[in-house]
Amino acid sequence: MYLFRITVCVLGLFAGLGCGAAAPGAAAPAADEPTREQCNAAVAEARALAASVPADHLSRYFAERHLHQAMAEAGNGEFDECLEMAARASDEVRERRHELRPGEKLKVLRPDE
Amino acid sequence: MFPSGKTILLTAASASLALTQSAAAEGFGRDERRGNPYVAGDMHNHNTCTDGSVAAGYAIDRAVGRGTASAGGNNFDLDWFTLGNHGGSGNRDCRFSDTSANLPGQTTTTWSQTLGQTIDGITISSLKGTPNGTGTGAQMWRWQSIREVEYPTIVDRSAKYEKVLIEGLEWIAPGHEHVDVAVITGQHPTHRKGPGNADKMAEFEYRFDRADTDAIGPVIDAGGNQLWPGKDNVNNTGTAGHQKALTGIKWLQTNYPLQSYVIPTHTERQGPFSPTANKGYNIEHFRDFNNAGPTVAFGIESPGHFAEGGANGGSGSYTPTAVGGGTYGMSGVYTAKVGGLWDGLLAEGRNSFIFVSSDWHSRGAGGARDSFTTADFIPGEYTKLYVPNAGRFSSQHVIDGMRSGNSYSVNADLIGPDLVFRAKARGDDWKTMGETLVVRPGEKITVEMELTVPNENNSPYSFDNPLLVPVGIKQPLNKPALDHVDLITGQITGVVAPDAPNYAVANAAGTAGAAIVYNPSAIIARQISATQMKREHRGDRDGVRLKFTTTFVAGPKPFYIRARGTNIPNGTPNVSDTAGNPLLDANNAQVSCTDPACPAHMETVNGVKKVTHDVQAYSNVWFHANPIFVRLEGSPKLLVETNAELARRLGQRADNDHDHHDHDDHHHDHH
Q1: A98 neighbourhood in chain B, CB within 8 Å
Q2: Least crowded by CB within 10 Å, which of B334, B344, B604, B649?
């Protein structure tokens, strides 16, 4: 089974963690809109939760994919969808929504295949 | 159109501004599709310019290319494609796919890494407008990526594929969630005089997208003077946001009444509208949209994200807090429920039509080339939006077809590109979807439907549909099968005025929202089993042609007839009720997938695989056809008719002035 692992470094590149200061001169978001800080916190919490699951568990892989998408949403400035994807990652881990049967594999094409 | 003096003034202005628009329409000969009465497309999908997983060019390649992609994976050969990506901004360079797509040689790349480089013939020298983030977080405003990245990519791919490609937008609307928009004015990617531009699309995004908070936009001189001055960057939320959204729609209606569309999408997802937030739509907002833009705001898009369904629901990206609590037959409750919100709009005789698209972002747990998906399908893979094939098909014909209502939406290739759905009273005066049949009281109305059920779809699975195993039906997931067609009718009681007490209707999140009845007269008037239809086998490649005819008797009131079809029999446990209505799709996950071939990525409960993700999508399959309207001779014209007449008048004015002013640049067909 190939489990694509997302490193913190790549995630940082992806969403520009810590680099996304509000644009000076641009309009500020509405007060009740989710913020980048909330997004980052939710992702960090979900990532810690995912790290508690064995590395070869399918739910950990799914959670990491959700977190990758959460960062994509953040990179697009859609922090509400970031929170949604982080919540999905947390639920995935808590409920172990995906698991393989003995001998079963999830085949995902690697970039070099 | 809702009659008002203001609208008349707006219409007159629209006509003069429509003069040069027809010259921009792109047309291509389509010999190989000339026999199909409809052509398939997708108008809602994403790439790495925003939150998608693949490069803009790669998304187009997979959607409209044929055969197999160079690095693997099937292409889906759509006839037309609108690149409908979010507004706002993005930090990734969308000439590259994301690392998560697992494509050879492609890694997540940000604008900060590529500024000044020429890649795919495109050079981005700077990130324009109000500075937005630093380092790898430096973001390009979408108005810039629309103009400088996506549209040049469309120009490149238009020449390569000779298909109709349009630069559109998924508008993050003030006060609401998302809306599919396109403005084709200026876009003529293969024109002999030059490829044009997507500046009008970009200007709309800059002015009206609430996620685009740039206060500068493009400048026209070294002094920093703005090309698009006067942006409202304040009223983006709640009720004020809704008013700004209406301003945006009026801007389109005034300037591009025949060359733009505004179609709210996944409209139930974030629950009811909130006057203090940015979410949702109630029926009054659809009414407001159509009143503000009678020839541009003419419908609703059902959600994409068809493979997101898990053990607790989630198909269509809907959570239990969505209006309706989730999807029903892979549609939102507004359009899936008989008597629901869409029927409420049709009860006014309003030109409100439904559409569907992929909302492609990624394949979830899979990379872009994998055959399975736990999130979205690539455009053309699962969902097809059919509009009439106008022969020399063009971007203008995409919009004209959508506006006319003569279109239908199909999941999993349940039916093909040659639907016939029409009605007549006498003689041979057939009226089809979006049109109005005028009859005498008591007259017999003949309704005819013909459709083709293809031999195969794009499912990678050939095991039997697990939702139908409990009822003893063996139906391979890769073989489309029609169980029945419903003809749904509802009375038309007239346009509801904005000051009428029932113009706004209280809405509700969750399953409570599914209980709201907007048109109590809407019923499943006929249900025609596929076994009752005339059958013509068209060979191993082309599938089976099915036909039926039925009749209605004209009553004293106008009404409409819309159609839907499915592979799901009435009363299928956890899927449909005894009348044939789809149940909440989250129930599908009550059914276990026990075939040895059930794939590894399905969600499990206590170690047992459940009908989820793409298996659910290929198991629970529907198509929806837009309505035919019927009214009595001598009765007032319906809004759908007067708005169609408005579009015709605007088109005639544009054609007359265009013929008068510019014969050389004529680049679209007259019919």
Answers
A1: 365, 601-604
A2: B649
Other C-beta atoms within 10 Å of B66: how many?
9
The three-state secondary structure class of B172 is strand
Shortest distance, CA A55 to any CA of chain B (angstroms): 15
Q: Which of B51, B100, B276 sits opposite A76 (nearest CB)?
A: B51
Q: How far apart are CA B40 and CA B60, in angstroms?
A: 14
| Contact across the interface for B138 and A19, Cβ inside 8 Å | yes
Is the predicted pLDDT of residue B4 greater than 60, yes or no? no
Q: How far is B237 from chain A (nearest CA, A)?
A: 7
Closest chain B residue by Cα to residue A6 = B100
Give CA B128 to chain center in angstroms: 31
Q: For residue A42, is it within any domain?
A: yes
At A43-102, the pLDDT tens digits run 999 999 999 999 999 999 999 999 999 999 998 888 999 999 999 999 999 999 999 999
- Dihedral through CA B333, CA B337, CA B343, CA B345, nearest 10? -10
Q: Cβ separation of B278 and A30 shorter than 8 Å? A: yes
Residue A74 covered by a domain: yes
Indicate yes or no: CB of A65 within 8 angstroms of CB of B364: yes
How far B87 CA lies from chain A's nearest CA (Å)? 9
Query: Does residue A20 fall inside a structural domain?
Result: no
Containing domain of residue A65, as a range? 34-100
Partners of residue B98 in chain A, C-beta under 8 Å = 14, 72
Domains in chain A, number: 1
Neighbours of B202 (CB within 10 A): 30
Contact across the interface for B100 and A33, Cβ inside 8 Å: no
Question: pTM for the complete prediction?
Answer: 0.92
Tell me, yes or no, whether A66 lies in a domain.
yes
Report residue B213 as tokens: 């908070």
Structure tokens at B483: 């169980």
Separation of alpha carbons B532 and B485, rounded Å: 11
Q: Verify whether the Cβ–Cβ distance B91 to A75 is below 8 Å.
A: yes
Prediction ipTM score:
0.85
Tens of pLDDT along B358-367?
999 999 999 9
